[in-house]
Design brief:
about 180 residues; globular
């Protein structure tokens, strides 16, 4: 499975910004294939192998910089990616649309950045949405937590308050879907 460079570029940026003195330590902890991707210029519209370019870097941020808490690291990196991605002209788009509209476009967004994935909005109510990832070739909980962090921050940017996301099911844990139950005030 492959992922667009636009999605992975924020990982080394995050480490350099928040852990500049430990960037080299994190880079050295990566497997060689991941290190080669993260240490070099990431082309935003190029496809990269997902394990080497996202899964391993997320998990190593958790291991090296978050005291083995890859869940929090992945979530924080997702939030950072949303903050960086949804600025400028995109911020206006996010603020103008409703949370339901933003999340209903998740399937289109996901297919643009992940080459073999499918996501569906299965429930939409006032202040509650349920998303299912129904196809993801190489599922990993670190990626799911990263997506949850991105969704949370994107909804906050759109004006939602107290955004909560429950990852009740996971393809990585052998459930039939990955389920994101999203609520806000």
């Amino acid at each position: 499975m492959k992922i667009k460079g636009l999605t992975i570029r924020t990982t080394p940026e995050f480490v350099k910004k928040y852990y500049p003195d430990r960037y080299q330590e994190w880079l050295n902890a990566l497997p060689e294939a991941s290190r080669q991707i993260m240490a070099n210029h990431i082309v935003v519209n190029e496809w990269y192998p997902i394990v080497e370019s996202l899964t391993m870097p997320l998990r190593k941020v958790g291991e090296v910089l978050y005291g083995n808490d890859w869940k929090k690291a992945s979530w924080d990196l997702g939030r950072y990616d949303a903050e960086e991605s949804l600025t400028g002209i995109y911020k206006l788009y996010v603020k103008m649309g409703s949370p339901n509209h933003l999340i209903s476009r998740a399937g289109r967004i996901m297919s643009a950045y992940y080459d073999d994935a499918e996501i569906k909005l299965v429930q939409s109510e006032k202040n509650k949405l349920t998303l299912h990832i129904i196809r993801f070739d190489q599922p990993d909980e670190a990626i799911e937590f990263n997506m949850a962090g991105w969704i949370q921050r994107a909804l906050e940017i759109s004006g939602c308050k107290e955004v909560r996301i429950d990852l009740s099911k996971s393809l990585a844990r052998k459930d039939l879907v990955s389920e994101f139950i999203i609520t806000w005030n």
